[in-house]
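Hello, quick one for you while I still have it in my head. A protein chain has come my way and I'm curious about its shape. Can you walk me through what the C-alpha cells say about the fold? No rush at all, and the record is pasted right below.
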Amino acid sequence: MSRWNVGDIPDQTGRTAVVTGANSGLGYVTARELARKGAHVILACRDETRGNDAVGRLRDEVPDAHVEFGHLDLGNLRSVREFAAGFGPERLDLLVNNAGVMAPPYGTTADGFETQFGVNHLGHFALTGLLLPHLRAAPGARVVTVSSMMHALADLDFADLNSERGYRRWIAYGRSKTANLLFTHELARQAGTDGPIAVAAHPGYAATNLQTAGPRAEGRRAVERVVEIGNRVVAQSAEAGALPTLYAATAPDIRPGTFWGPSFLMWRGAPAPSWQAARTRNDTTAHHLWHTSEQLTATKWTATKAT
C-alpha cells in the first residue's frame, strides 16, 4: 500500500461512476483517473459552464475518455432530485461524494439549511438515497464520501444543526465533516453484505481552490494570499490529495466503513487507514443523524436489502 499510485488503479472498463464537484481540484483528478482507466464518468457539477469546460479539458488529457457533464446543485434538493430522476445508466458502480464548501461566510442553501451542513452532508445524503436503485443494480458498487481531518474540530449539535444560535465557520465545517463520517458508518452498517460498500476518505492538506473560496467571497485578499502561499509551500498537490479517494474507490478488498487518508500524519503521502474520532463510529448518533437527515431532506430510504 505504501507505494500505491494511480498506476495501480484496476481496469474500470464497463463501470459507471458519478463524481460530484468534478470541475476542479480533487474531484477533477478523481474523474480524470477513473476515465483514464476506462470508466464512464459523469462529472456532476453545479456550474454548467465550468462543468462543460472540465469535460473538454479532461478529453484533451485523455482523448478516449467516456465522460459527460451532469447538472447537480447539492445546495438545492430540487436539483438533486432532478439529477437522480434523469440519471440514464441502469447501474451505478461508483458514487464519489466529493463536492463541498469550506468555511464560507454564513449562508443558507435553497432549502434553508446552513450552507456547509446542507451541501456537504444533506445534499449527498439525499443524492445517495435517490441513486440507490442504480447502486443496487451494480454488484460490488461503492459509495465513497470525502470527509476531512478537520472533523476533529467539532461533534454534531442536534439542537442547532443550522448554526442559528451562532455561526463559527470552522466549527460548522468540522460538524459537516463529522456528519460525513457518521453517514458512512450508518450506510455501511445498514448495507451489510447486500448493499453498496460505504467508505470514507480525506485528502490531508491538498492545494485546491476550496481553501481560497471563503476569503475570496468576503474580499479578504490578505487572508486569501496567505492561504495561496500555504498551498504552494506546505500542501501536497491535488493529484496527491485525490489518491486516498481513488484508493477507497477502486482498491480490492476495501472493508466497509473504513476511512482512508495520507499516510504521513494524515497530512500527505500514500493512502493509508486514517485516524477518526471515536464519536464518528457511534451507532446511536449515526442512526439519529440518518433519521434526522431523512426528515430534513424528505428522502426516506434504507440501504438494507429489500424483502
